[in-house]
What we know:
13 helices
Amino acid sequence: MRLFKKPPPDSPIAIAQEALGQADPASLIDSIDRIITEGLWQVGTPYSEFAQFAIAPVSEGGLSVRSTRRAKLLKFALMEGRYIREWTLILSVIRRRPGHPKTRNNDEGFQPFYEVNTSMNSQDRVLITLYEKHPDVFEEVCQGKCTISAGAIRAGLKPSPPPRWRMDLQDVFGMHMDAQVVLMRDLFNGLGLETQAAFIAQVFEGVVGAGLAQKWREAQSRDGSA
């Protein structure tokens, strides 16, 4: 039986172990970041994969992620650090598969416990599907080249959202004057009467004198009742 040396209480692994037990997300985020970036999970351990380290009991130098509560805490810390690959690999180990035996052959005594929603609106479902069926898109998501949602759309897991008209001020400033006039007219005509009047009062009455907004209200009211 392998004996595991208990990590010092101020080490990132010890802090992460305690944070998972005490539900302390703030401490967990920093400690998980150090564990991954510094490769501490591989120091003095037999684990070749981060997922193995994550599910291993504390007595064996791991994080003992063997309950939904601990899994969700770890997910939070990993996703905050953009460690999408690490969370997905853990997810592939801990998720409960319908129709599959609960005990995994490669880790005697470990039972998958994590329920993954079947809907593609579920982030976990999208990640595990990309990992298993669309590895190229999964790599792009892990590398930050596209979001998880965008990856789902690219892989055909979710429909593309309907196009939305969107424009910022720089786009407007770069337009030809005639196009700017058409845009301003369409925007103005799409506003309600009181909003139009408030705009006129704020923009023009300080220059041409008071009463212009009221004249606009009266003119529009006459046109509307004609």
